[in-house]
From TrEMBL:
<dbReference type="GO" id="GO:0010181">
    <property type="term" value="F:FMN binding"/>
</dbReference>
<comment type="similarity">
    <text>Belongs to the FMN-dependent alpha-hydroxy acid dehydrogenase family.</text>
</comment>
<feature type="binding site">
    <location>
        <position position="137"/>
    </location>
    <ligand>
        <name>glyoxylate</name>
    </ligand>
</feature>
<feature type="binding site">
    <location>
        <position position="115"/>
    </location>
    <ligand>
        <name>FMN</name>
    </ligand>
</feature>
<dbReference type="InterPro" id="IPR008259">
    <property type="entry name" value="FMN_hydac_DH_AS"/>
</dbReference>
<feature type="binding site">
    <location>
        <position position="267"/>
    </location>
    <ligand>
        <name>glyoxylate</name>
    </ligand>
</feature>
<feature type="binding site">
    <location>
        <position position="172"/>
    </location>
    <ligand>
        <name>glyoxylate</name>
    </ligand>
</feature>
<dbReference type="InterPro" id="IPR012133">
    <property type="entry name" value="Alpha-hydoxy_acid_DH_FMN"/>
</dbReference>
<feature type="binding site">
    <location>
        <position position="264"/>
    </location>
    <ligand>
        <name>glyoxylate</name>
    </ligand>
</feature>
<dbReference type="GO" id="GO:0016614">
    <property type="term" value="F:oxidoreductase activity, acting on CH-OH group of donors"/>
</dbReference>
<dbReference type="InterPro" id="IPR000262">
    <property type="entry name" value="FMN-dep_DH"/>
</dbReference>
<feature type="binding site">
    <location>
        <position position="135"/>
    </location>
    <ligand>
        <name>FMN</name>
    </ligand>
</feature>
<feature type="binding site">
    <location>
        <position position="163"/>
    </location>
    <ligand>
        <name>FMN</name>
    </ligand>
</feature>
<dbReference type="Pfam" id="PF01070">
    <property type="entry name" value="FMN_dh"/>
</dbReference>
<dbReference type="InterPro" id="IPR013785">
    <property type="entry name" value="Aldolase_TIM"/>
</dbReference>
<protein>
    <submittedName>
        <fullName>NocN</fullName>
    </submittedName>
</protein>
<feature type="binding site">
    <location>
        <begin position="86"/>
        <end position="88"/>
    </location>
    <ligand>
        <name>FMN</name>
    </ligand>
</feature>
Length: 371
């Protein structure tokens, strides 16, 4: 049975259903690339445990019959406080890759963030008509950095998101054990023009992707580099990979319009604080001077509601989008986003929240993860 036939036979009723479909159809090495984290993978588990510890305190008799999850993200309208996170090499999951996911984001009315390591060019993704933001990994080749920013602007991207937590790629043991390499038809379309790169060749004792990114990415970045990017573009500037409130304040001082509280989905520093636990302190530190988004561990609409209550303007949704892409291409991603919107809307109504502003005023309590 094909992935599409599986979806037709039993439409998913929760994101875990989509995850099961994706795992059934993906090759084990690709599944491990999507699902894996760095080191012990305890940070991935901690992300989920930290969400489970956030108990919402609902309001009653607020007159809410049906909540409205619409909001504004970076000055633009969004059907819900969600954007699709930047994720590399989506053609690993489906031939249409980022194009299918972006079309689903457009249908859902949420922004789509194009990765530097997208397997389709930023120009082609933007041409889908989705609200598109561009994620930049700062490269050793500064001229290439400048070219990528100019291309994103020319393509009509609405924001520039700079990822700052990857001076090198975290050691992802699943990929190392699998000797993971990219298939020949998948490449970083915004960067690669030759027949093959390090990402397509096996390296003993290391991930091919780690070797590739080590050669391409600039280590040792400073706030001066961020200020240079701020001066180079008029796009809203988003800094992704913030966990310490001091860094959030520095980002604001450097001209950031938003920060993303993120531990890279548990794929970078093994032992990092869960993103949702870091969120309240970061939100307090910036004091409304910039927007605050949350990334890492979001697995449904209730998690979005928790993030709003803890100070986020919205969230970036990552792995569930890849599950949907693997399970059914554009339709699979549309189902993922629809499930998130349904759960969020119901959660807001049950919590007595008419809109995102009311959700931000909810109280929370911290409880045991198993409760």
């Amino acid at each position: 049975m094909t992935a599409a036939e599986m979806l037709e036979a039993a439409d998913p009723v929760c994101l875990e259903d989509v995850r099961a479909h994706a795992r059934a159809v993906l090759e084990p090495g690709i599944w491990d690339f999507v699902e894996g984290g760095s080191g012990t993978e305890r940070v991935m588990a901690a992300n989920r445990a930290a969400f489970a510890e956030v108990a919402l305190v609902p309001r009653v008799l607020t007159g809410v019959a049906e909540a409205d999850p619409r909001t504004r993200l970076l000055g633009g309208h969004a059907a819900m406080p969600v954007a699709v996170a930047p994720m590399a090499y989506q053609r690993l999951l489906h031939d249409d890759g980022e194009l299918a996911a972006a079309r689903a984001a457009r249908a859902a009315g949420v922004p789509f963030v194009v990765s530097t390591l997208s397997s389709h060019r930023v120009e082609d993704v933007a041409a889908t008509g989705a609200t598109t933001w561009f994620q930049l990994y700062c490269l050793r080749d500064r001229a290439k950095n400048h070219e990528l920013v100019a291309r994103a602007e020319a393509a009509g991207c609405g924001a520039l998101m700079v990822t700052v937590d990857v001076p090198l790629m975290g050691r992802r043991l699943r990929d190392v054990r699998n000797g993971f390499v990219l298939p020949r038809h998948v490449r970083a379309a915004n960067l690669d023009s030759g027949p093959a790169t390090e990402a397509h060749r096996r390296f003993g004792g290391d991930s091919a992707l780690a070797v590739h990114t080590s050669a391409a990415f600039a280590p040792g970045l400073t706030w001066r580099d961020l200020a240079e990017l701020r001066d180079r573009t008029s796009l809203p500037l988003v800094v992704k990979g913030i966990l310490d409130p001091r860094d959030a304040r520095s980002a604001v001082e450097a001209g950031a319009d938003a920060v993303v509280v993120s531990n890279h989905g548990g794929r970078q520093l093994d032992g990092a604080v869960p993103s949702v636990r870091a969120l309240p302190a970061v939100a307090e530190a910036v004091g409304g001077a910039c927007e605050v988004l949350l990334d890492s561990g979001v697995r449904g609409g209730t998690d979005v509601l928790r993030a709003l209550a803890l100070g986020a303007r919205g969230v970036l949704l990552g792995r569930p989008v890849l599950w949907g892409l693997a399970a059914g291409g554009r339709r699979g991603v549309e189902q993922v986003l629809d499930l998130v919107r349904t759960e969020l809307g119901q959660g807001m109504t049950l919590a007595g929240c008419a809109d995102a502003t009311a959700a931000a005023e909810l109280r929370t309590e911290r409880t045991a993860a198993h409760a």
